[in-house]
């Protein structure tokens, strides 16, 4: 199956349990999901792919304590000082 150009596999391990796998770049992501319907299991994998794609595009976005975060007090002080100097 395919989601936004990412090929993924979905395999029923037993009734109500699905194993999935996809690869973005060099990173392979695998997991299991519980669902009685294949459509629901597929949707859950697609949601995981969407999250992984967002993280791949903006790796620091999901880490609010990173140095480049706009929420750090230092960035607010710099923004306030630059606004005063204008």
Short description:
With about 90 residues, the protein is an alpha+beta fold.
Outline the structure in words.
The protein has 86 residues and is an alpha+beta fold. It has one domain. Helix content is 38%, strand content 31%. The protein has helices spanning 38-57, 73-85; strands at 2-3, 6-14, 17-24, 27-34. A four-stranded antiparallel beta sheet has the order 1-2-3-4. A hairpin with a 2-residue loop joins strand 1 (2-3) and strand 2.
Given the structure, what is the number of helices? 2
**Which ranges are low-confidence, i.e. pLDDT below 50, for 5 or more consecutive residues?**
79-83
- Helical fraction: 25-40%
Which secondary-structure class do the elements indicate?
alpha+beta
Q: How far do the termini sit from each other? A: 54 Å
How is the main sheet built?
A: 4 strands, antiparallel
- What's the count of strands? 4
Q: Strand order within the widest sheet?
A: 1-2-3-4
**Secondary-structure element sequence?**
EEEEHH
**Radius of gyration from the alpha-carbon trace, in angstroms:** 20 Å
Q: Roughly what is the average pLDDT, rounded to an integer?
A: 74
Number of domains: 1
Question: What's the overall geometry?
Answer: elongated
Secondary-structure blueprint:
Layout: E1 2-3, E2 6-14, E3 17-24, E4 27-34, H1 38-57, H2 73-85
Antiparallel strand pairs: 1-2, 2-3, 3-4
Pick out its properties.
2 helices, 86 residues, 4-stranded antiparallel β-sheet, elongated
